[in-house]
């Protein structure tokens, strides 16, 4: 267990170096604040101390305020455990002190960590240190003066951008902006900081209290305009979240009434937001995401991940080229195999387009793009497979083809090589049936576009070895994905969980609800696309294939809607040919197409499920629930069958794989905020009127009747069906 502590050393030059330590990221836990206050008070008192250097231990300044404290507040509702750091420590003890303090920043200074540094009188950083205020991503605002000091150091526009995006900058940019006073190598960090502190004390360098400087804020009308524009933008990009507008209000308060008044308002709003449901949800997602790295019997049995230097990707289609892109971007050598040179060239071209796209969006430098592309080699046979550490097969969903490939790669690859399939539906036991290497066969299910979407579903069978899972998790982390380990079943965790999403939407349309209204309500709820626009984007082939697959495994709860086939019959293929539920034209937003309405009518006539032949009457809230509660119901089955290690893994998977709004905490977390009982009773009612699709699962019924949250651990998966 890590111990949070603060130490102080005073040397002959009269500089007190105060070092705080709380591995692994020096999070500012409550004892750190206590320790800082004590050491600063001592340093101010001692006559042998002329100046202070504040630093974090082990090559990191700080990852910010201890987020566990937020969790504690969420559990207990007790806001009094939040310390008054902002005025008590930062203003009174550090910034307004009679001795200067210099922050020596290595590694990172985020959130409260950066705010601590902003309260110092100068900041020295190592190259490439990350500096940012990501509090909004946790549903709060900076609470230790960041909303006031950052604009005063870097200017209002940049500060607003940094806070609203939560994205950090590097120390080099910080230096240009005036946030950092000097960038020096790690070996010189303390030496330069000590001298800087002495120079301030000796008035050879400026003694700057950043809360009081004004010159970078611009005129009041300029500030008003900038904040007004940011508000308009936030209303669109951050709807349903209070922290963005709250942050802008607090910044504005300081611009109008001065930094100190701003700090007081900031502290008040910060506390209010810590208690908000949005913060509760986002903090949950933060810890849930980290929990996915802990997989029982894989990460806790002393195994060491093996290095993966070279990966073979089979298939240069959309998925294969996306996967290869993600790998080469992280400096992993890739051989891309195709069956002929035409397909191979097409695959390589797609990868080049992916990489150039990142350059044009300024996400990648030209140099790094060239470096990434130099890690790629196209091949037409298996000769390059003799020294690969991992193969990812990404060909079409065809069982005999996959089986053939797996028996070939078993022979072509070294015995340690992991044999992974990117299948999204096919049982991995069947994929590997013709090999004797079941222990190294695993699913590596990426989400399209694979170089962009952050989730990697790692699917294990009963036979997959812990080492293979660990190695794939490590590759996933290296290529900046969040790996979630799941069990083997139809659709695995994410696709299976969200199959009822589009089914529910189709039932509603056939019951008489408007297609476009459904999409609008779902996007208002927070998903980026409604179910019908999503179907347009994915292509109707996917919809038809998944319905076929799922209906054969889950016939009791598959609804057959003829709508997609009718659309295809009418020459509509979704975004592919510019005509789906919506019309797609270059350069303009998708427009609902009224010509779809007669096709919808035809579908309704064929299914004939409207009670009394009339459209049903439902509220907007019910429409959302009739689509999302069946998803919750399926999540319950997934939990019951032990497909995921813990409920929060499904939250992460739903947020990162299906873009379920993170500020609602993920599918299970959200269901618990709604209440298992309400979900159960609603489903039960609908199942009586509209049929089996809505029938509550046994797991849901049990949890609802016993008042147990859906997220509570599953003691024993029912009927010995655990897949993990
Ligand atoms: C008053 C203030 O304004 C309020 C605040 O400061 S709110 C906090 C603001 N800070 C942040 O949002 C930063 C959150 N942390 C991060 O983004 C990332 O953890 C990081 C960039 C610091 C490090 O990333 P990475 O190296 O990938 O390590 P990561 O796995 O995320 O974290 C390592 C461990 O540190 C923990 N950790 C990271 N930051 C933490 C924090 N601020 N508080 C508590 N624990 C933290 C993680 O939970 C994880 O714990 P685990 O090993 O038990 O799972």
UniProtKB/TrEMBL annotation:
Pathway, per record: Lipid metabolism; fatty acid beta-oxidation
GO annotation terms (biological process): fatty acid metabolic process
Location within or outside the cell: Peroxisome
Catalyses which reaction(s): a (3S)-3-hydroxyacyl-CoA = a (2E)-enoyl-CoA + H2O; a (3Z)-enoyl-CoA = a 4-saturated (2E)-enoyl-CoA; (3S)-3-hydroxybutanoyl-CoA = (3R)-3-hydroxybutanoyl-CoA; a 4-saturated-(3S)-3-hydroxyacyl-CoA = a (3E)-enoyl-CoA + H2O
Span of the signal peptide: none
GO molecular function, one term: delta(3)-delta(2)-enoyl-CoA isomerase activity
Entry-linked Pfam families: 3HCDH, 3HCDH_N, ECH_1
Protein name: Peroxisomal fatty acid beta-oxidation multifunctional protein AIM1
Organism: Forsythia ovata
């Amino acid at each position: 267990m890590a111990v949070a502590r603060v130490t102080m050393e005073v040397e002959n030059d009269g500089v007190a170096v105060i070092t705080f330590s709380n591995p692994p990221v020096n999070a500012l836990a409550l004892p750190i604040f206590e320790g800082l206050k004590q050491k600063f008070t001592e340093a101010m008192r001692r006559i042998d101390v002329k100046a202070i250097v504040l630093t974090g231990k082990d090559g990191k300044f700080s990852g910010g305020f201890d987020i566990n404290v937020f969790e504690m507040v969420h559990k207990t509702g007790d806001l009094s455990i939040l310390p008054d750091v902002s005025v008590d420590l930062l203003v009174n003890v550090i910034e307004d002190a009679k001795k200067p303090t210099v922050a020596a920043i290595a590694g990172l200074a985020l959130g409260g960590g950066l705010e601590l540094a902003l309260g110092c009188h100068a900041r020295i950083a190592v190259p490439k240190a990350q500096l940012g205020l990501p509090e909004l991503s946790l549903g709060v605002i900076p609470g230790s003066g960041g909303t006031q000091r950052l604009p005063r150091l870097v200017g209002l526009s940049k500060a607003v951008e940094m806070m609203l995006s939560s994205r950090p900058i590097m120390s080099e940019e910080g230096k240009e902006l005036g946030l950092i006073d000097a960038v020096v190598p790690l070996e010189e960090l303390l030496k330069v900081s000590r001298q800087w502190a002495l120079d301030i004390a000796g008035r050879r360098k400026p003694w700057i209290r950043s809360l009081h400087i004004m010159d970078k804020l611009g005129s009041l009308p300029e500030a008003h305009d900038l904040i007004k524009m940011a508000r308009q933008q936030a209303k669109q990009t951050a709807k349903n979240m209070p922290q963005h507008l709250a942050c802008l209000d607090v910044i504005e308060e300081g611009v109008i009434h001065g930094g100190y008044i701003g700090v007081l308002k900031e502290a008040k709003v910060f506390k209010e937001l810590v208690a908000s449901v949005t913060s509760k949800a986002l903090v949950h997602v933060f810890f849930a995401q980290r929990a996915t790295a802990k997989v029982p019997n894989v990460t806790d049995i002393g195994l060491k991940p093996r290095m993966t230097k070279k990966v073979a990707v089979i298939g240069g289609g959309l998925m294969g080229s996306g996967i290869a892109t993600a790998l080469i971007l992280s400096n992993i050598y890739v051989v891309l195999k195709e069956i002929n040179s035409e397909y191979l060239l097409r695959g390589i071209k797609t990868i080049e387009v992916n990489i150039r796209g990142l350059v044009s969006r300024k996400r990648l430098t030209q140099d790094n793009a060239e470096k990434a592309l130099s890690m790629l080699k196209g091949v037409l046979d298996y000769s390059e497979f003799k020294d690969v550490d991992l193969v990812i097969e990404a060909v079409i969903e065809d069982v005999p083809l996959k089986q053939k490939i797996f028996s070939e790669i078993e022979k072509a690859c070294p015995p340690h090589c992991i044999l992974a399939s990117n299948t999204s539906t096919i049982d991995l036991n069947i994929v590997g049936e013709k090999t004797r290497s079941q222990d190294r066969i695993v699913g590596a299910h990426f989400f399209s576009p694979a170089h962009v979407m952050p989730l990697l579903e790692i699917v294990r069978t009963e036979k997959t070895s812990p080492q293979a899972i660990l190695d794939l998790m490590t590759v996933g982390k290296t290529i900046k994905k969040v790996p979630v380990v799941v069990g083997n079943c139809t659709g695995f965790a994410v696709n299976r969980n969200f199959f009822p999403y589009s089914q529910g939407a189709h039932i509603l349309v056939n019951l008489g609800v408007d297609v476009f209204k459904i999409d609008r309500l779902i996007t208002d709820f927070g998903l980026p696309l409604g179910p019908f626009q999503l179907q347009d984007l994915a292509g109707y082939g996917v919809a038809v294939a998944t319905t076929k697959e799922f209906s054969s495994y889950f016939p009791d709860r598959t609804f057959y809607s003829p709508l997609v086939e009718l659309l295809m019959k009418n020459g509509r293929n979704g975004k592919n040919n510019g005509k789906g539920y919506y019309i797609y034209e270059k350069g303009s937003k998708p427009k609902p197409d009224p010509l779809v309405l007669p096709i919808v009518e035809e579908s309704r006539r064929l299914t004939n499920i409207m009670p009394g032949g009339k459209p049903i009457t439902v509220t907007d809230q019910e429409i959302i629930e009739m689509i999302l509660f069946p998803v919750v119901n399926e999540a319950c089955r997934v939990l019951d069958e032990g497909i995921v290690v813990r409920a929060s893994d499904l939250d992460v998977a739903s947020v990162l794989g299906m873009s379920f709004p993170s500020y609602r905490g993920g599918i299970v977390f959200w269901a618990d905020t709604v209440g298992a009982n309400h979900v159960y009773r609603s489903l039960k009612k609908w199942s009586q009127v509209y049929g089996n699709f809505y029938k509550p699962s046994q797991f849901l019924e049990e949890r609802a009747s016993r008042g147990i949250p859906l997220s509570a651990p599953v003691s024993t998966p029912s009927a010995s069906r655990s897949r993990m």
